[in-house]
Amino acid sequence: MVELKLYTISEIAEILRVTERTIYNYIKEDELPAIKIGKHWRVRHEHLEQFLEKNIKTV
């Protein structure tokens, strides 16, 4: 059986320390892929990792 880790919008906001509105904006702008299950948005673990890798700035 394949384990599928999904995060809620509030979990992602807490991880990234931003507001939920910011996460919704990332989704709306297609920067963070998400799926809608019923009326709730979810983000796959793999998509969060890709988002972070793409947006990490090194000094």
Outline the structure in words.
This protein is an alpha+beta fold and 59 residues long. The protein has a single domain (6-55), classed as Molybdopterin biosynthesis moea protein, domain 2 (Alpha-Beta Complex). 47% of the residues lie in helices and 19% in strands. It has helices at 9-16, 20-28, 45-55; strands at 6-8, 35-37, 40-44. It has a 3-stranded antiparallel β-sheet. The longest helix has 11 residues, at 45-55. The chain is globular, with a radius of gyration of 12 Å. The protein starts with 5 loop residues before the first strand and ends with a helix. The model has no long low-confidence stretch (mean pLDDT 93).
Adjacency order of strands in the biggest sheet: 1-3-2
Radius of gyration: 12 Å
Euclidean distance between termini CA atoms: 41 Å
CATH architecture title: Alpha-Beta Complex
Total beta strand runs? 3
Described by the principal axes of the CA atoms, the overall outline is: globular
CATH level 1 class label: Alpha Beta
Query: Main β-sheet, in a few words?
Result: 3 strands, antiparallel
Helix content bin: 40-55%
Number of individual domains: 1
Q: What is the H/E string?
A: EHHEEH
Structural class: alpha+beta
CATH topology: Molybdopterin biosynthesis moea protein, domain 2
DSSP summary: helix tally: 3
